Amino acid sequence: MYLTARRLLDSGYDRHEVLHMLAGAMAEQIHAALAGTGGYDRDRHLAALSALPESWERQRHDERWLRESRLNGGGAASPPALARRVRA
């Protein structure tokens, strides 16, 4: 995780944002353990870390789109990244 943090910091992300990214990658593991759907999966966790910052940027874009859509009354089609995540 340290190497990922260094890579993200060196890419220009600030410490606060890097901590959110790392926590998001770990949150999937914690959720699976608490939900009883699995334990810690090192390969999956490493894959989530490797996907940063692109996965974080996609999620942030989707969340911003949802927020704006709600403010504008909704009705528009969902962004492709969100549709993929909902089906998964």
Descriptive account of the structure:
With 88 residues, this protein is mostly helical. It folds into two domains: 52 residues, no CATH class; 36 residues. It is 74% helix and 0% strand. It has five helices and no strands. Helix 1 runs antiparallel to helix 2. The longest helix has 21 residues. It is flat, with a radius of gyration of 15 Å. It starts with a helix and ends with a helix. The C terminus is likely disordered.
**Residue-averaged pLDDT:** 82
Radius of gyration: 15 Å
Number of strands: 0
Order of helices and strands: HHHHH
List the topology elements.
Layout: H1 2-10, H2 15-35, H3 42-50, H4 54-71, H5 80-87
Q: How would you summarize what this structure contains?
A:
The protein is an all-alpha fold and 88 residues long. It has 5 helices and no strands.
Features of the shown structure:
88 residues; mainly alpha; 2 domains; 0% strand; flat
